[in-house]
């Protein structure tokens, strides 16, 4: 199975922590496993020791590969003698709604509409510049101009970012690329309504 190094790796892989047999409880061997298709283990050879509070540092190399950063939520699963951790993304449960929203907005605006969330980007096969993705992590509506959006395209874009935020946390963002026509201010009401709906769902 070929690894995919583009955006969305977190949804193609999971991290497994294998507990060492009784008597060596303070050691954990870190391995990676493909969560789709045939199960293929890849031992990293990395061993980490739990501290007295049960904390474990995930190696920098693994955090970088799986795009784990400070503040990310981690979900725990158990299976026999294994402890599985997976990056938790609350927006995943809304992915079908988000796809419909983006299709609706794209038809209205006659421009490309993106949603900045890894599962959505992977599903739609968009590979964005990391610098641009960081630009979208804002807490208010922002306009941008002269930005390279796609990894495989040198073209510079302008557009608008509508973030999804709740209780000070950022969950994603709609992005409209103004390629074919300008969008009037009053036309953004639909996108604002979708953003507010998604934000409200995160508050429940």
Note the run of SSEs as H and E: EEEHEEHEHHEEEH
The CATH architecture name of the largest domain reads 2-Layer Sandwich
By CATH's scheme, which homologous superfamily of the largest domain applies? GAF domain
Helix count from the secondary structure assignment: 5
Mean pLDDT, as a whole number? 78
What proportion of the residues is helical, as a percent range?
10-25%
Q: Round the Cα radius of gyration to an integer and report it.
A: 20 Å
Number of DSSP-assigned strands: 9
The poorly predicted ranges are: 1-14, 16-39
The top-level CATH class of the largest domain is: Alpha Beta
Q: First CA to last CA: what distance?
A: 39 Å
The fraction of residues assigned to DSSP E strands is 25-35%
What sort of overall outline do the alpha carbons produce when their principal axes are compared? elongated
Structural class: alpha+beta
For the largest beta-sheet, the strand count, sense and barrel status come to: 5 strands, antiparallel
Side by side, the strands of the main sheet go 3-2-1-5-4
Stated plainly, the CATH topology of the largest domain is called Beta-Lactamase
Number of domains: 2
Explain this structure.
One of its GO terms (molecular function) is DNA binding. Keywords: DNA-binding, Membrane, Transmembrane, Transmembrane helix. With 204 residues, this protein is an alpha+beta fold. The chain has two domains: 80 residues, Pemi-like Protein 1, Chain: D; 112 residues, 2-Layer Sandwich (Beta-Lactamase). It is 24% helix and 33% strand. The strands form two sheets. The protein has a five-stranded antiparallel sheet, with no helix packed on it. Strands 6-9-8-7 form a four-stranded antiparallel sheet. The two termini are 39 Å apart. The N terminus is likely disordered.
